[in-house]
Give the backbone structure.
Amino acid sequence: MSRKKFVIFSLFFLFAQTITAQEMVQIWQNQKVRHGKQVTLMPFLADDSDGTAVIICPGGSYFWLDDGNEGEEVAEWLQEQGISSFVLRYRVAGFGAFFWHHRRIFRGRQHPDMLKDAQQALKYVKEHSTDYHIDPNRLGLIGFSAGGHLAMMTACFSDTEENRPAFVGAIYPVVTMNEPFAHERSRRALLSERKQNNQMMRDSLSIERHIPDDCPPVFLINCSNDDVVDYHNSIMLDSALTAKNINHNYIQYKTGKHGFGVSEVFGSKESRQWKYEFVNWLKELKF
């Protein structure tokens, strides 16, 4: 083989390897998990990264996933900031459950499916940290709305270092499952039609009741004019984190409402600053 052909072949091989490394992966592959094939991770690997990486949990009321505005667009933006990201498509109840309430008869997808997916995503990325060129000790979660609840739930209920995030970003999150501030659609999707009125289940998944003493650092933002998830959800989480002396940064914006992700159009000029605040917070975080 000539030198020129060798160089071309080598470049092609390296390029192919890069593309392969960033292909979507099934984190439950070769494991018998109900609806496990639907659970995927899409890597967005950053150049010149310091090893910090984030698994993104999009919102969608636990019924569906807003994996554009609160998923891939977030990952692309973070990638530009030098932070490797992974968009997690976790199990959700689905449109069928939303319209037909069929989980009164069939189990479908419900808690703890979502929690297990987030835990497995952390485990998977940590196991492949060398391939992804990230530091497993600097791997966190960021979640939006119901995804924020999932990210915090994972932090609160992690049982091993493998599925424990190094930090959490909770962006206009669902927090409580109890009245008067519960987001009812997320509660129904998470608990199912049969269990949504079970007070023990509501209490068990109300994040403000379960902040552990060793909770990882939390970055929390919301808007006081949120018209989807009552702003008191974030106030309750801030109070619970403060009571436990957990390292966290809470920013409440007056305007912006809900669901703006990293958009430069949605939200408000004020609320769109959150992403820069988050990156700065990460840079100052002592792991």
User: Anything to note?
Assistant: The longest strand covers residues 84-89. The beta strands are 25-26, 40-44, 53-57, 84-89, 139-144, 168-171, 218-223, 248-253. Confidence is low (pLDDT under 50) at residues 1-21. The domain at 49-284 is CATH 3.40.50.1820 (Rossmann fold).
